[in-house]
C-alpha cells in the first residue's frame, strides 16, 4: 500500500532535506496516519537511523537551517520554507518509570515502531516511493477506527502514564467503535498513576481531548471508569448529560468546539470547587478566570439567562465569547436560538463617560465619583446601551452641586 500524494509531501525544501539524509529517512506518525484518513496534515515528522549530530551536519552542509530542539533525545528540527520538520533518530527504550524514558539510538525500524504507543501511530512511509511500512497491524486498525496499543496495553502505559490520556484523546478523535477491552481495563487499572504526572501535562492532554469534534464517548468511558477522580477530583453529577447536550447544541448551531466551554460542562457548578480544580490543573490565570466567569453565571442566578435581554448585558460584562458559552451551557432550549442571535455580529460598546467628565461638570473629587459613574453606567446598560446623545441628556439632568 502507498501513501496518497498530498500537498504536504510536496513541501518546498523537503526533497533537498531527504537528499541530504541520503534517502535514509521515512515519514512517520501523524502525517502518515492523517493522510490515510484524508485529514489535513499540520506537522511532518521524519525518522532516520542516522545519529542526530550526523543529521545536523548533513543539513548544514546542504544549507538547510537546523535547530537542535531535542538533540539529547535524538530530535532536531529542519526549518523549511513551508514549515518546520522534526527529524528523530530511531530509538529503543533502555528504562522507563512512567514519567520519562531513557533511550538508546537504534538502526532498526521495527524496534523504533515497537516503542510507540498505538498501532496507528507506528506507520512509516518512504518519502520517495510513498510505500507504507506497517509492523503491527496499524493499517487494519486505522480502517476499522480501532485504537489499539502496540503489544501489551498495561506495559505501554507503565512506560508512560500519560498514554492513558492519549488513549482517550485518540478514541475521541478517531474511534468509531467500542473500546478495546484490554486497553480500557489497563487504563482504568493504571488511572491512579496519573496523579504522579505534572498537572500541566495532564491538563494539556485533557484540553486536547475536549477540543475534538465529539469527545462524548471517550469522556463517558472515563467517567464510567472513575478516571476523572485522578484528574480533576470531582465532576458534576450530570457531567455526561451536560456535555452531550452542549456538543449537540454546538453542532446544531455550527459553533466551533472549545475545550474550556466543555471543561465547564464537566466541573461541579460550585464556584469555589471549580476555581480550585482549575488552579490544581495549573491552567493559566486567563483560563482560570474564564472558567470561573462561566461557573459563576451558572450559580449566581436562580434562572441563568432567563430572558433574551440579559445576554448582551452579560456579554458587556464578560465578553461575547463568555456570554455565548454561558448560553450554550445553561440557557433553556426555547431561549437558546434567540440568545445566540442577539450575540451574532454584536460587539459590546464602550461606555463613553469618565470620572473626569463628571468632575468637569461640577462633581467633587472623591469616592462619590466612582459611585456616581457606576450608577450612570448601570442606567445606560438598563436602557440598552443608547448613544452619546442620550447619555449627555441623562447626565445633564443630574445635580452635581455640593450639598449646602
Look at the structure and name the CATH superfamily of the largest domain.
Beta Polymerase, domain 2
Helix count, DSSP H or I runs of 4 or more residues: 20
* Annotated CATH topology of the largest domain: Beta Polymerase, domain 2
Helix content: 40-55%
**Beta-strand share of residues:** 5-15%
- Using DSSP, what is the number of strands? 9
| Structural domain count | 4
Described by strand count, sense and barrel closure, the largest sheet is:
7 strands, mixed
Q: Taking Cα atoms only, what radius of gyration do you get, to the nearest Å?
A: 28 Å
How are the strands ordered across the major sheet? 3-4-5-2-1-8-9
Q: Give the structural class.
A: alpha+beta
Mean pLDDT: 91
Low-confidence stretches: 302-308
The string of secondary-structure elements, in order, is HEHEHEEEEEHEEHHHHHHHHHHHHHHHH
Distance between the termini: 93 Å
Structural shape: elongated
CATH class of the largest domain: Alpha Beta
- CATH architecture classification of the largest domain: 2-Layer Sandwich
Task: Outline the structure in words.
The chain has 20 helices and 9 strands. It is elongated, with a radius of gyration of 28 Å. Helix 7 runs parallel beside helix 9, helix 12 packs across helix 14 and helix 13 (271-280) packs antiparallel against helix 14. The chain has 4 domains: 1-144, Beta Polymerase, domain 2; 148-282, cca-adding enzyme, domain 2, CATH 1.10.3090.10; 301-348, no CATH class; 355-396, no CATH class. The protein has helices spanning 14-20, 30-37, 52-61, 109-114, 138-144, 153-159, 163-174, 181-190, 199-210, 216-224, 239-252, 259-266, 271-280, 285-299, 309-318, 320-330, 333-343, 355-360, 367-382, 388-396, and strands at 26-28, 44-48, 66-70, 75-80, 83-89, 91-96, 101-105, 123-125, 132-134. The longest helix has 16 residues, at 367-382. Residues 302-308 have low confidence and may be disordered. By secondary structure, the chain is an alpha+beta fold. The chain is 49% helix and 11% strand.
Amino acid at each position: 500500500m502507498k501513501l496518497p500524494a498530498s500537498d504536504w509531501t510536496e513541501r518546498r525544501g523537503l526533497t533537498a532535506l531527504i537528499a541530504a539524509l541520503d534517502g535514509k529517512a521515512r515519514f512517520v506518525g501523524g502525517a502518515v496516519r492523517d493522510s490515510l484518513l484524508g485529514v489535513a496534515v499540520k506537522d511532518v515528522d521524519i525518522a532516520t537511523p542516522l545519529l542526530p549530530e550526523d543529521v545536523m551536519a548533513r543539513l548544514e552542509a546542504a544549507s538547510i537551517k537546523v535547530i537542535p530542539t531535542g538533540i539529547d533525545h535524538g530530535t532536531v528540527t529542519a526549518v523549511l520554507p513551508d514549515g518546520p520538520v522534526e527529524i528523530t533518530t530511531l530509538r529503543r527504550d533502555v528504562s522507563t518509570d512512567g514519567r520519562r524514558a531513557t533511550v538508546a539510538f537504534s538502526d532498526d525500524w521495527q524496534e523504533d515502531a515497537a516503542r510507540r504507543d498505538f498501532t496507528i501511530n507506528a506507520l512509516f512511509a518512504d518519502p520517495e516511493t510513498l510505500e507504507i511500512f506497517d509492523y503491527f497491524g496499524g493499517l487494519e486498525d486505522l480502517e476499522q477506527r480501532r485504537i489499539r496499543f502496540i503489544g501489551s496495553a498495561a506495559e505501554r502505559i507503565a512506560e508512560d502514564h500519560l498514554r492513558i490520556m492519549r488513549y482517550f484523546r485518540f478514541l475521541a478523535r478517531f474511534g468509531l467503535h467500542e473500546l478495546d477491552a484490554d486497553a480500557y481495563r489497563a487504563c482504568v487499572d493504571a488511572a491512579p498513576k496519573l496523579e504522579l504526572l505534572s498537572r500541566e501535562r495532564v491538563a494539556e492532554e485533557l484540553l486536547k481531548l475536549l477540543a475534538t469534534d465529539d469527545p462524548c464517548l471517550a469522556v463517558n468511558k472515563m467517567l464510567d471508569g472513575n478516571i476523572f477522580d485522578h484528574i480533576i477530583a470531582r465532576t458534576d453529577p450530570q457531567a455526561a448529560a451536560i456535555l452531550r447536550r452542549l456538543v449537540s447544541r454546538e453542532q446544531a448551531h455550527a459553533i466551533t468546539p472549545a475545550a474550556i466551554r466543555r471543561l465547564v460542562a464537566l466541573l461541579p457548578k460550585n464556584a469555589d470547587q471549580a476555581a480550585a480544580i482549575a488552579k490544581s490543573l495549573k491552567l493559566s490565570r486567563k483560563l482560570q478566570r474564564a472558567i470561573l466567569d462561566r461557573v459563576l453565571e451558572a450559580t449566581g442566578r436562580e434562572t441563568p439567562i432567563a430572558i433574551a435581554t440579559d445576554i448582551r448585558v452579560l456579554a458587556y460584562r464578560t465578553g461575547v465569547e463568555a456570554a455565548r458559552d454561558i448560553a450554550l451551557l445553561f440557557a433553556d432550549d426555547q431561549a437558546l436560538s434567540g440568545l445566540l442571535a442577539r450575540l451574532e455580529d454584536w460587539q459590546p460598546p464602550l461606555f463613553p463617560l469618565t470620572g473626569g467628565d463628571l468632575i468637569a461638570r461640577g462633581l467633587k473629587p472623591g469616592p462619590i465619583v466612582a459611585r456616581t459613574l457606576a450608577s450612570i453606567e448601570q442606567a445606560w446598560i438598563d436602557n440598552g446601551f443608547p448613544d452619546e446623545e442620550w447619555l449627555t441628556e441623562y447626565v445633564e439632568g443630574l445635580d452635581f452641586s455640593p450639598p449646602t
